[in-house]
């Protein structure tokens, strides 16, 4: 009897462990106000960057180097808001969102999508970095869920800019099943439209080409910023197979987007960023396996 009881307790603990290691976060973490001290910005419209930064689990190859390259490029771009996907926690770096925000002197929010560093020493999620205050953080799990150990989420917040408030949302949809991905895109649309008030930007890795049903549906109601500015260009954003390759890497897919939702803000420009490797000691280093995007908007 005692042996059966011990087995039952062990199974219950294992079940609890597995469930907690596969659930999205219960709350948003970070420093939304009071951590930004990035100095004077270059004059011009509000600049928003989106990047799938590649967590690189389980090896995390050159992650610290790549984090520092991301910091340098965000500073060069003088981005006001940065929307990041695949933002990891690792034993060496801690929360990458916190690391980047401290290096940049930005406010930030982070929401866990997968893993749990308290249990398995790894997790990853979405993050918003901003030189301006962030308020009213929002988060949701996107449904349907493909499998137990894969959660897809969206994180949103209001950015209090000198020109007024603008809502931003960051997300990362599944890459494994187009039907599930379509459901997640619809779940994202409902989440955004339910909570946004006025102008909004939705960005991330949608893991879907422009002619896919989910992107076609979203682009019919939200403005695909890169396509509006570059109607004839492919706008490829994925994927870098070898992060040590030099310039001239061939890309195959357009799966990352920044959408501008109807409101009193207008699109000024949209461009690809992080689209070249960085020269480092001994060769080349890409910041991620994805190309990023940057939009400039103004009231």
Question: What order do the helices and strands come in, and which of them pair?
Answer:
Elements: H1 2-20, E1 29-31, E2 46-52, H2 63-77, E3 81-90, E4 94-95, H3 96-104, E5 107-115, H4 117-120, E6 123-130, E7 134-141, E8 153-161, E9 164-172, H5 178-195, E10 200-205, H6 213-219, E11 223-224, H7 225-229, E12 256-261, E13 266-273, E14 278-280, E15 283-285, E16 292-298
Parallel strand pairs: 2-3, 9-10
Antiparallel strand pairs: 1-5, 2-16, 3-4, 3-6, 5-6, 7-8, 8-9, 10-12, 11-12, 13-16, 14-15
Give the overall shape, derived from the CA principal axes: globular
List the secondary-structure elements in sequence, H or E: HEEHEEHEHEEEEHEHEHEEEEE
For the residues shown, what is the average pLDDT? 92
Q: Unreliable runs, pLDDT <50, ≥5 residues?
A: 8-17
Count of β-strands: 16
């Amino acid at each position: 009897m005692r042996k059966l009881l011990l087995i039952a307790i062990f199974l219950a603990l294992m079940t609890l462990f597995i469930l907690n290691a596969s659930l999205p976060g219960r709350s948003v973490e970070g420093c939304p106000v009071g951590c930004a001290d990035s100095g004077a910005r270059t004059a011009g419209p509000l600049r928003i960057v989106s990047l799938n930064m590649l967590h690189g689990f389980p090896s995390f190859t050159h992650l610290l180097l790549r984090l520092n390259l991301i910091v340098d490029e965000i500073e060069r771009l003088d981005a006001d808001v940065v929307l990041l996907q695949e933002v990891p926690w690792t034993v060496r770096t801690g929360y990458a969102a916190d690391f980047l925000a401290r290096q940049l002197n930005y406010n930030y929010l982070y929401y866990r999508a997968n893993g749990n560093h308290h249990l398995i020493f790894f997790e990853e999620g979405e993050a918003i970095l901003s030189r301006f205050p962030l308020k009213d953080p929002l988060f949701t799990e996107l449904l349907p869920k493909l499998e137990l150990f894969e959660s897809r989420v969206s994180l949103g917040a209001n950015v209090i800019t000198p020109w007024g408030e603008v809502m931003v949302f960051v997300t990362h949809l599944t890459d494994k099943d187009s039907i599930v991905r379509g459901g997640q895109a619809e779940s994202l649309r409902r989440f955004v439209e339910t909570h946004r008030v006025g102008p909004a930007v939705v960005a991330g890795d949608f893991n879907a080409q422009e002619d896919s049903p989910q992107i076609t549906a979203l682009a019919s109601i939200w403005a695909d910023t890169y396509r509006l500015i570059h109607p004839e260009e492919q706008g490829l954003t994925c994927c870098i197979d070898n992060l040590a390759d030099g310039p001239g890497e061939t890309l195959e897919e357009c799966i990352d987007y920044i959408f501008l939702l109807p409101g009193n803000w207008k699109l000024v420009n949209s461009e690809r960023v992080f689209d070249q490797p960085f020269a480092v000691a001994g060769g080349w280093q890409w910041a991620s396996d994805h190309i990023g995007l940057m939009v400039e908007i103004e009231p």
